[in-house]
């Protein structure tokens, strides 16, 4: 089978930027990507663009991929907006990979962008709620915090997962994010702060939740044949997998498992001929702290029900045997919905090439990395395994 | 926008007002809310309507506080404080999500028995949306 | 053919506010003889309460909702001024769509109005089964002292010619022209009252006693032949005033004095109080019910208790199940803080 390589990756700063819209944010990511390409970068070589985006507050729902592409100078190429809620970016990456794999194009751009802070608090909740099961889950009075809290509570009930263990995810990711100059929150927090923050949806509190973020990212995907033209150190796509699940949690057989993550990762591992033990660094979807614990289990890093212990033992710290979210994760880096998946690819591209901005969060010697992007409460999931 | 239109809400009245479930004619499992194809056997789309008892047990729950409520429910949270939302395992098999009313949030427990009642869910565009909520059983 | 009450049910929302909390907020409490009153929760209204008592009444017989051939709903506080209201309850309870329904909403007499129109159906259709649901939670401006009395409650009755617990012996009505007392102008959702005290009192006394005495005369009865008497309760004093004019004693009124702990239940005042009296009554007892609606009119109904089947839960159990709220919470629930 054809091999696909990633030869460039860029990301805008994540945060709140009143002076920037989706066009400007995407341009910042695209420029950053173009600078990351070691040699011979040529916009004319980009034959197609796949853009992850949930809807940017609803102001440009239609044809937004054409808009951001032409703004960065990519005119008259096939463009497509990919929407799978918070996994939009991950699916945009997979779309670009499949495009190159199919032989249709040699060089494709995968990107994502979201502008989340332009709308009023009320409208923000209105459009963020669009990705769950609207008829039942939303009309029972829940937002995503509530849905992940339902999962967290059952996880605590079944496996004895502790409130402190949820907070430890936040503490770890803030510690990593403090070393990420592009993160939204570049500061550490204490366990006490995290445990005692105000309740949003018991058992989840404010520090269990990621924030709303403006940001964009872009990844240059190409056929292995042409990769060496752009860099001597391409990162290869070893495998990828995606899966859907029942949208509403009450429809799922198991409340404490994201079956989408299990299926997507099984497919990615199988394609790569690798297993969870081979993963040396991972960027997982920690929209809420419980989501990172679920990811440890459902990606096979530890047994079902043992994620809390696995975290407490330090395995997922930088320096541990399975460092997770060295970027700070969604929790500290920010979660500009459509950008999150390709943003994870940007981080892993740099981790595997040893080029993260600050050495403190460089996972030393990592050659195989996994990225994991979840839509909503698990209705869609993308996993990609990358290797040097 | 996550807006549930009047006709969209109306189409779910059998579920919301009177808990009509859909028993698969092939495998006998009860689908609630309804599916096009039975989610248990994936082999039939013929169903018999059955009235569910509304009785069940709390499988998991959350207490929604300020900031955790969707805008349709913000006023409820402000007027009444924290409100519980649960996934309930119904006697007939299916699990379904809904609020628990008539209980101090502190007293909600996993596995507690509940039953259903018609309540106001929320009001939008001047129209009251009624539907089932769970209440503690055995009162 | 004997017709009467075959089953009944009562529901009192569990929230209560004490007169002391009003006194703390306003300096005084204006509802005579009322010590506390019931309040509906945020997610309740008269339709959800009507659905709840309808189920209870049907279960008390017991009879399935599919057997109901006539449905009558009454309340002075419907959530919509224009819209068929009974449909919400019918669909929720499972009453056939083909069943004739009616909504009675224009005065606190609506409860007995609904009962009598349902009785007419049973009278005309010996195999008919009528269900009457009355729920109310009247609302007035927090600035008006008559707001203090307004409570919340619901009762439902299954009326038929079978399995009778209390037989309808007869009824009489009286309607007349009064104004200025308890009314809602066209564009208002809150009750107004011009507080012309003696004039209003004369309306209450005239209509209730005319209807009540007409019924006594029709049945050839004396007041003392009734073990229980239920009179409309805008507060806990009015029934005593009316009762003494008609030579009813405090003892006869006692079982149905729901206003002391629930306040003014509006259209549900006499239906809920009748349920309390039925809980207390023995076979052979007679019960007189006299409603009142401003503007004005009264219905009087006479029942003879012929069975000792009681509905669950009992009125007293409903009255005893309570959770107190303070005045701020009360204002929030009533939507009075704008």
What does this protein structure show overall?
The complex is a heterotrimer of chains A (388), B (139) and C (338). Chain A is 36% helix and 18% strand. Chain A has 388 residues and is an alpha/beta fold. Chain A has a single domain, classed as Thiolase/Chalcone synthase (Peroxisomal Thiolase, Chain A, domain 1, 3-Layer(aba) Sandwich), CATH 3.40.47. Chain A has a nine-stranded mixed beta sheet, with helices on both faces. In chain A, strands 5-6 form a two-stranded antiparallel sheet. In chain A, strand 10 and strand 11 form a beta hairpin. The mean pLDDT of chain A is 95. By secondary structure, chain B is α+β, with helices and mostly antiparallel strands. Chain B has a domain of 86 residues: OB fold (Dihydrolipoamide Acetyltransferase, E2P) (Beta Barrel). Chain B has three helices and eight strands, in the order ααββββαββββ. In chain B, the strands form two sheets. Chain B has a five-stranded antiparallel beta sheet. The mean pLDDT of chain B is 94. Chain C has two domains: 174 residues, Peroxisomal Thiolase, Chain A, domain 1 (3-Layer(aba) Sandwich), CATH 3.40.47; 140 residues, Peroxisomal Thiolase, Chain A, domain 1, CATH 3.40.47. Helices cover 33% and strands 21% of the residues of chain C. Chain C has eleven helices and twelve strands. In chain C, a hairpin with a 6-residue loop joins strand 10 and strand 11. The N and C termini of chain C lie far apart (55 Å). The model of chain C has no long low-confidence stretch (mean pLDDT 97). Chains A and B meet through helix 4, helix 5 and strand 5 of A and strand 4, helix 3, strand 5 and strand 6 of B. Strand 5 of chain A pairs antiparallel with strand 4 of chain B, so a sheet runs across the interface.
Summarize the structure.
The complex is a heterotrimer of chains A (about 400), B (about 140) and C (about 350). Chain A has 13 helices and 11 strands.
């Amino acid at each position: 089978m054809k091999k696909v390589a990633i030869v460039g990756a860029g990301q805008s700063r994540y945060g709140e930027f009143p002076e920037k819209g989706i066009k400007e944010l995407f341009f910042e990511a695209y420029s950053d990507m173009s600078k990351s390409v070691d040699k011979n970068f040529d916009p004319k070589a980009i034959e197609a663009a796949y853009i992850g985006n949930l809807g940017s507050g609803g102001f440009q729902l239609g044809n937004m991929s054409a808009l951001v592409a032409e703004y960065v100078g990519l005119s008259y190429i096939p463009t497509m907006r990919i929407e799978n809620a918070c996994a939009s970016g991950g699916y945009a990456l997979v779309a670009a990979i499949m495009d190159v794999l199919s032989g249709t194009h040699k060089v494709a751009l995968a990107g994502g962008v979201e502008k989340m802070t332009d709308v009023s608090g009320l409208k923000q909740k209105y459009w963020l709620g669009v990705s769950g099961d609207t008829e039942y889950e939303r009309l029972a009075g829940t937002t995503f915090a509530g849905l992940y809290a339902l999962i967290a509570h059952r996880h605590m009930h079944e496996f004895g997962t502790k409130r402190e263990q949820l907070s430890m995810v936040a503490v770890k990711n803030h510690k990593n994010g403090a070393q990420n100059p592009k993160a939204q929150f570049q500061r550490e927090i204490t366990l006490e702060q995290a445990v005692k923050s105000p309740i949003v949806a018991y058992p989840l509190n404010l520090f269990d939740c990621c924030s709303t973020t403006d940001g964009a990212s872009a990844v240059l995907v190409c056929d292995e044949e042409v990769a060496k033209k752009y860099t001597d150190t391409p990162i290869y796509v070893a495998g990828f997998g995606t899966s859907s699940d029942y949208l509403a949690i009450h429809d799922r057989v198991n409340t404490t498992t994201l079956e989408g993550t299990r299926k997507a990762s099984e497919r990615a591992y199988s394609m790569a001929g690798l297993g969870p033990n081979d993963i040396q660094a991972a960027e997982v979807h920690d929209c809420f702290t419980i989501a990172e614990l679920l990811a440890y289990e459902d990606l096979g890093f530890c047994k079902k029900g043992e994620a809390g212990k696995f975290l407490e033992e330090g395995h997922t710290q930088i320096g541990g045997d399975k460092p997770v979210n060295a970027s700070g994760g969604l929790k500290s880096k920010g979660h500009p919905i459509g950008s999150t998946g390709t943003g994870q690819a940007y981080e892993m591209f740099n981790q595997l090439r040893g080029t993260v901005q600050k050495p403190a969060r460089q996972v030393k010697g990592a050659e195989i990395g996994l990225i994991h992007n979840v839509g909503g409460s698990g209705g869609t999931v993308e996993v990609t395994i990358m290797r040097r | 926008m996550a807006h549930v239109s009047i006709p969209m809400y109306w189409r779910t009245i059998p579920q919301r007002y009177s808990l009509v479930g859909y028993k698969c004619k092939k495998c006998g499992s009860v689908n609630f809310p309804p599916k096009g194809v039975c989610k248990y056997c994936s082999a039939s789309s013929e169903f018999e309507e059955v009235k569910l008892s509304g009785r069940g047990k709390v499988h998991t729950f959350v207490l929604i506080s300020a900031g955790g409520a969707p805008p349709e429910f913000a006023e409820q949270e402000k007027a009444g404080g924290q409100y519980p939302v649960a996934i309930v395992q119904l006697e007939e098999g299916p699990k379904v999500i809904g609020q628990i009313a008539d209980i101090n949030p502190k007293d909600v427990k996993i596995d507690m028995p509940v039953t259903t009642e018609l309540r106001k869910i929320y009001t939008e565009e001047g129209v009251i949306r009624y539907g089932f909520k769970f209440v503690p059983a055995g009162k | 053919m004997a017709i009467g009450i075959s089953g009944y049910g009562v529901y009192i929302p569990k929230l209560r506010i004490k007169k002391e909390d009003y006194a703390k907020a306003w300096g005084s409490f204006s509802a005579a003889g009322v010590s506390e009153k019931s309040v509906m929760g945020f997610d309740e209204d008269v339709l959800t309460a009507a659905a709840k008592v309808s189920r209870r009444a049907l279960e008390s017989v017991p009879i399935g909702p599919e057997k109901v051939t006539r449905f009558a709903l009454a309340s002075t506080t419907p959530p919509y001024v224009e819209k068929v209201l009974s449909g919400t309850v019918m669909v929720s309870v499972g009453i056939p769509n083909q069943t004739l329904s009616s909504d009675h909403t224009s005065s606190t007499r609506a409860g007995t109005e609904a009962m009598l129109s349902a009785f007419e159906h049973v009278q005309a259709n010996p195999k008919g089964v009528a269900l009457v649901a009355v729920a109310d939670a009247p609302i007035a401006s927090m600035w008006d002292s008559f707001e203090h009395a307004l409570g919340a409650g619901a009762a439902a009755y299954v009326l038929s010619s079978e399995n009778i617990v209390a037989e309808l012996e007869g009824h009489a009505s009286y309607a007349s022209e009064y104004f200025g007392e308890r009314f809602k102008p066209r564009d208002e959702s809150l009750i107004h009252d011009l507080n012309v005290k003696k004039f209003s009192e004369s309306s209450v006394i005239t209509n209730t006693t005319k209807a009540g005495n007409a019924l006594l005369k029709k049945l050839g009865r004396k007041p003392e032949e009734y073990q229980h008497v239920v009179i409309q309760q805008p507060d806990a004093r009015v029934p005593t005033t009316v009762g003494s004019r008609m030579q009813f004693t405090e003892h006869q009124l006692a079982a149905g004095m729901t206003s002391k702990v629930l306040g003014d239940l509006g259209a549900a005042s006499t239906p809920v109080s009748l349920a309390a009296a039925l809980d207390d009554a023995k076979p052979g007892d007679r019960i007189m019910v006299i409603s009142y609606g401003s503007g004005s009119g009264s219905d009087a109904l006479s029942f003879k208790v012929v069975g000792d089947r009681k509905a669950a839960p009992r009125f007293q159990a409903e009255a005893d199940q309570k959770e107190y709220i303070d005045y701020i919470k009360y204002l929030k629930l009533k939507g009075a803080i704008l």
